[in-house]
């Protein structure tokens, strides 16, 4: 009967109506730039010529760069897991006083602007720094330390969340059968945690392999990863074809990694059926884990403390001169605008990027989480799901580069638009927003909406009654994250920010590259200001205690 | 003369070519309660969801009071749905849950409050208005869900295994209450359940579903007294189905004409010296109400039987059995 087909068709039409916006946005601001970049590599002069790409991939320097990317990311991932596991246990299973505060503190590095972290590590490891005697400045060790500093929080959060809701009874049963604590850990606890550990490790590897700001500030030209190499090739050497070739390579590798990570993750939805086990008191066997957590906390605090101390140092001892100088353009006219003006630009950009990422992420979340009635509908949804996750697979640098070469001419000419930077940043923040919202939306029992509908609530009203109460906290948290990401975003912004409208990370990078005592001091002060801003946002978000935050 | 409220004709629901509900036709008169009974996976819940407008029909039509409702979305059908686990809105108090639909209709504050109080009294939860769902027991939650569903005086109440999530004693008590509440409110209701006792307590009419099809339907006593086939009989709680000569012998002992098969309840055979079915006791087990026996009836084999409390029957002992004709049901087709 016609009426029956109508009902099914209507569902598909509603789905299409909801999806058309995000699909268009992603098409213009993601597919177009990325394909433009691919085209630049394979069709350099309008004709298909893959030889150029192959030539680039055969260069010895490219091999060196690729190898360095792989081994530094692997080492950093391994270290993050090794250092993160004891802290995940201590902070999620033991009743340590102030553990909530420590957990929040460990989350801060994850959202600190990469440039700031780079500056902080240089300050710590540099010749005149407290750890200067180690001679690590400018070595791969410094880069790996920086990467671990960032990503250890991911391991602590993801593994900690799994550990927190791990049923203790199988372990107790094993102990009752005569297993020692170590045997219990090895045979019961670790296998149960494996999905979370593997999931966290794959995400960390991805972050490390595509890290940009930190490698650029700590590695310079000598130690480059694929990501920084793309930047150097574009901005310094103007070898666009080589940059495109590397971008294509990275796109392929990262997509494969993401697909693997998605398969390995298989972490159950954190909001549904999450029984948190009561934390227990600290016992003697826990001492190493607690001590390791303390060391980790110190290691995380050291660069930040050095940064703050450095920013307060002036030629005549301690003082606020560096901060006062933020209203100037630095020595030798290092900058075109004062840092304070860049801060205003940063905040404005972040506001725009936040609402864009939020709106976009919300629609995407609703589209991919609604229950499907037919196979066709399910297939459409899963294709959309994959499509919307694509930005996760592309590095910020590639995205910025793609924007630069495709959105400067019709049909989409945004070269002079003030929205170009926020749009790019919103896309960078999108996966984080979606990952925060989707588990919550998926965790809402669809029968709640059905119950509301059967009581006479319109779909819109059902959304207000059922979804909104569960969603407002994750939404606020997601906007906080998007805001912090936007404040610190450097990879795409470095390409796209116009010289007279830089954001703070861009300004910091320019300051440390410009000789002059005052410039360096200003870079430190600006880093502290930016770090403080993001830390405040993230700590506020942390207070909301959204379960899915940071659990990738 | 009652009039037809809900009428289903050839209702079919298929997912991707797999038919969950296969050409089901049913009629439900105004003010009556119909229980759709069937094992899990038989399509009964899908049928209920189709009536609610949550599953699109592949074929057939659903009418209410003679009017087509197929094209109406759930929220316009005026059928309230109560779920197995209540699905209360966790962030709203009991009173706000119950008054939800009234607020949707923009009923005045005072009116809403008095109606909510009335409903809470009806379900026996006076004084619970300000509690949050998380602080309630399972039974209390179901009562709130019922009050919430009844608030708008739905023209049809849909109950999806309303008592299944509760423990046995509570379920029994609440089934009686549910019947009383539905009667008092004069509600027309469609309930799906897999529990024949629950169906028997609450409903006026019974429809038995199996593998997506309607096997039998009618007033509950009629279905009970004459199950359509062996599987239905076993599902309705009959202990065994006898066929051929065995059925004829038991029926003869009950003084009734022979049929192809006979469904026998556990309590259909009673140990009685005056009985005319002799046998040997295989086992005996005392329960709070009676002694349950398994008797090897001469020429038939093992059958269940009961004996009054206090009687002693040791295995191996000879015994005579009487047939209680109200506890057997002839099945016309073999």
TrEMBL record, chain B:
Gene3D superfamilies: P-loop containing nucleotide triphosphate hydrolases. GO terms for molecular function: ABC-type ferric iron transporter activity; ABC-type quaternary ammonium compound transporting activity; ATP binding; ATP hydrolysis activity. InterPro entries: AAA+_ATPase (IPR003593), ABC_SmlMolc_Importer (IPR050093), ABC_transporter-like_ATP-bd (IPR003439), ABC_transporter-like_CS (IPR017871), ABC_transpr_FbpC (IPR015853), P-loop_NTPase (IPR027417), Transp-assoc_OB_typ1 (IPR005116). One of its GO terms (cellular component) is membrane. Keywords: ATP-binding, Cell membrane, Ion transport, Iron, Iron transport, Membrane, Nucleotide-binding, Transport. It comes from the Bacteria. The keyword Transport applies. It is an enzyme of class 7 (translocase). Its EC number is 7.6.2.9. Residues 6-236 form the ABC transporter domain. This is ABC-type quaternary amine transporter.
């Amino acid at each position: 009967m016609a009426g029956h087909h109508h009902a099914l068709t209507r569902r598909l039409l509603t789905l299409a109506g909801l999806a058309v916006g995000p699909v268009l946005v992603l098409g213009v601001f993601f597919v177009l730039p990325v394909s433009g970049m691919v085209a630049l590599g394979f069709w350099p002069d309008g004709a298909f010529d893959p030889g150029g790409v192959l030539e680039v991939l055969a260069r010895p320097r490219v091999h060196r760069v690729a190898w360095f990317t792989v081994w530094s990311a692997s080492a950093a991932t391994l270290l993050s897991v090794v250092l993160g596991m004891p802290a995940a246990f201590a902070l999620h299973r033991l009743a340590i006083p102030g553990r909530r505060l420590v957990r929040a503190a460990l989350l801060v590095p994850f959202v600190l602007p990469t440039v700031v972290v780079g500056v902080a590590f240089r300050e710590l490891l540099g010749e005149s720094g407290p750890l200067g005697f180690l001679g690590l400045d400018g070595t791969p060790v410094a880069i790996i330390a920086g990467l671990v500093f960032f990503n250890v929080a991911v391991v602590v959060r993801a593994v900690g969340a799994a550990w927190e809701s791990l049923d203790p009874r199988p372990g107790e049963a094993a102990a009752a059968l005569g297993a020692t604590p170590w045997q219990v850990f090895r045979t019961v606890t670790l296998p149960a945690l494996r999905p979370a550990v593997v999931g966290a490790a794959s995400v960390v590897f991805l972050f490390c392999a595509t890290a940009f700001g930190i490698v650029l500030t700590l590695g310079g030209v000598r130690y480059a990863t694929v990501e920084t190499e793309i930047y150097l090739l574009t901005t310094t050497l103007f070898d666009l074809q080589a940059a495109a070739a590397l971008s294509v390579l990275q796109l392929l590798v990262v997509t494969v990694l993401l697909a693997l990570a998605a398969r390995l993750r298989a972490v159950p939805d954190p909001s549904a059926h999450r029984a948190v086990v009561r934390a227990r008191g600290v016992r003697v066997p826990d001492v190493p884990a607690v001590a390791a957590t303390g060391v980790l906390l110190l290691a995380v605090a050291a660069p930040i403390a050095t940064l703050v101390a450095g920013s307060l140092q002036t030629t005549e001892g301690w003082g606020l001169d560096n901060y006062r100088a933020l209203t100037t353009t630095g020595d030798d006219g290092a900058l075109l605008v004062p840092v304070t003006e860049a801060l205003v630009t940063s905040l404005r950009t972040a506001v725009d990027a936040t609402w864009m990422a939020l709106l976009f992420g919300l629609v995407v979340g609703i589209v991919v989480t609604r229950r499907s009635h037919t196979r066709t509908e399910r297939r459409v949804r899963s294709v959309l799901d994959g499509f919307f996750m694509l930005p996760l697979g592309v590095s910020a640098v590639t995205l910025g580069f793609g924007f630069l070469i495709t959105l400067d001419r019709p049909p989409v000419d945004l070269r002079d638009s003030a929205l170009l930077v926020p749009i790019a940043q919103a896309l960078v923040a999108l996966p984080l927003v979606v990952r925060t919202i989707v588990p919550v939306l998926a965790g809402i029992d669809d029968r709640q909406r059905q119950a509301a509908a059967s009581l006479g609530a319109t779909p819109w009203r059902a959304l207000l009654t059922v979804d909104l109460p569960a969603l407002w906290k994750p939404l606020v948290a997601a906007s906080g994250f998007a805001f912090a990401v936007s404040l610190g975003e450097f990879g795409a912004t470095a390409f796209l920010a116009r010289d007279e409208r830089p954001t703070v990370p861009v300004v910091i990078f320019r300051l440390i590259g410009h000789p002059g005592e005052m410039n360096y001091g200003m870079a430190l002060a600006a880093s502290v200001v930016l770090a403080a801003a993001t830390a405040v946002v993230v700590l506020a978000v942390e207070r909301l205690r959204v379960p899915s935050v940071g659990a990738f | 003369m009652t009039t037809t409220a809900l009428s289903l004709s050839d209702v079919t629901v298929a997912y991707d070519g797999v038919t969950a509900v296969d050409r089901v036709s049913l009629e439900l008169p105004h003010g009556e309660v119909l229980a759709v009974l069937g094992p899990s996976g038989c399509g009964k819940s899908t049928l209920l969801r189709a009536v609610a407008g949550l599953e699109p029909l592949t074929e057939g039509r659903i009418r209410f009071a003679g009017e087509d409702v197929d094209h109406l979305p759930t929220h316009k059908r005026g059928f309230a749905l109560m779920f197995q686990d209540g699905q209360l809105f966790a962030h709203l108090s009991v009173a706000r849950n119950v008054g939800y639909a009234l607020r949707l209709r923009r009923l005045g504050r005072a009116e809403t409050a008095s109606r909510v109080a009335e409903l809470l009294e009806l379900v026996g939860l006076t004084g619970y208005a300000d509690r949050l769902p998380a602080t309630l027991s399972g039974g209390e939650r179901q009562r709130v869900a019922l009050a919430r569903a009844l608030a708008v005086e739905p023209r049809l109440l849909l109950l999806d295994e309303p008592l299944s999530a509760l423990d046995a004693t509570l379920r029994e008590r609440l089934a009686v209450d549910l019947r009383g509440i539905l009667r008092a409110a004069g509600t027309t209701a469609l309930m799906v359940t897999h529990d024949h006792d629950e169906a028997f307590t609450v409903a006026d009419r019974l429809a038995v579903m199996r593998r997506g099809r309607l096997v039998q339907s009618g007033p509950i006593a009629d279905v009970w007294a004459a199950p359509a086939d062996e599987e239905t009989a076993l599902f309705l709680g009959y202990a065994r189905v006898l066929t051929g000569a065995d059925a004829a012998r038991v029926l003869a002992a009950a003084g009734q004409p022979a049929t192809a098969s006979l469904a026998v309840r556990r309590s259909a055979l009673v140990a009685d010296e005056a009985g005319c079915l002799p046998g040997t006791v295989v086992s005996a087990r005392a329960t709070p109400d009676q002694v349950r026996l398994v008797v090897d009836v001469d020429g038939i084999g093992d059958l269940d039987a009961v004996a009054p409390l206090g009687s002693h029957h040791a295995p191996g002992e000879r015994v005579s059995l009487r047939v209680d004709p109200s506890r057997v049901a002839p099945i016309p087709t073999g």
